[in-house]
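Notes to self after the Tuesday call (sharing in case useful).
The group wants a holo model before anyone commits to mutagenesis around the pocket. I volunteered. Ligand is adenosine-5'-diphosphate. Logging inputs and output together so the record is complete.
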Amino acid sequence: MLEISNLVKSYAGEKTGKRGSNGARVFAVNNVNLSVEPGEMFTLLGPSGCGKTTTLRSIAGLERPDSGTISVKGRALFAAGNGVKAVNVPANRRGLGMVFQSYAIWPHMTVFDNVAFPLQVRPRQERPSKAEIEQRVGRVLEVMELRQYSERLATKLSGGQQQRLALARALVIEPELLLLDEPLSNLDAKLRESLRYELKRLQRELGITSIYVTHDQIEALSLSSHIAVMRDGEVMQLGKPRDIYENPTSKFVAEFIGSSNFVQGHVLSRTGEDYVVESAAGRLHLQSAAAMPAGSEVSVSIRPEAVELYTQRPADLQNVWEGVVGTRAFLGDAVDHLVAVDKLELRVRSLPNLSLEPGTKVFAKLPSDKLALVPIS
Ligand code: ADP
Ligand code: MG
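Result:
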């Protein structure tokens, strides 16, 4: 559906004020490759400045990349670079819908007119009839639960309603691809959560292929069919939410999505995908698709909720470490224990029915299928 290959976009570096003294170029997008299937909710996730917006604006035709290709349904929207026939379809000819963080609604128009506008400004030969416009606008207002506000001035809507209006306006053109840049980030937490589910339902129901940009890992995990985690203009890891969460391939991804304990050690032995890692706190057996030869310095990543705590030694012979509870924190729906194992401090998240006094001797089980092997940096 959407194919992006070798996309690069750089900007001139910071100017120091002196003439000609430009700094090094900033590579906002640095060789990004993505492939999005029809009907997907595909998310670009990463910290501020990692190149999400630049990628999205390049797809929309609002930025001109240095090189690479972008195509939708096999139709080239952009192409530039060595040996490539240059293509650059103007933004208004790409047939894409966009919703931004600052939802620019037209304040002097009614809800109905806001949504009808993108259809009304089309060239005469492509413009739907008045009756069809009415029907299409009515339908998206219905879906967005805004129909009863049809004649109201857009500014007289609440924040959440205005954001739904911005979505309605993007949907009315029935875009082949919907581009969403942090569309929920200006809303308060409760509203954000409810709109998140609404957006997911809507995207499913309408089956619109969407590219969603966010720095919010929860949003990304809950909404997406696939996630591309970005850092410094590059895609660090691409996969389904659960796969990325459970099998991060770098410290960066393990830390950016959720939180993780890292146990540093070295590969003691490796047979195919079966690894034994030796650390100061003890030995760990795990399976990994990573290719790290024996002797490599590595980190083992384990999620706080994946560690199991017991007050009696469990029957398992492997991956059980003895420790002492240091600190305990009640979080309402969970209890966190910090467990000292040798010099290592393990963060363990448990269900609230487990609450152990500081000083309690415990056995921490690190299940081998919950461990991910990542490079040390
Ligand atoms: P994100 O959306 O992930 O926060 P952006 O795509 O907005 O990141 O920016 C990526 C990088 O490109 C940042 O380092 C940013 O400072 C730089 N950048 C973005 N737009 C411009 C611009 N118009 N001029 C110079 N640098 C820019
Ligand atoms: Mg951005």
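Two things stood out.
The first strand starts at residue 2 and ends at 11.
The CA atoms of residues 268 and 277 lie 5 Å apart.
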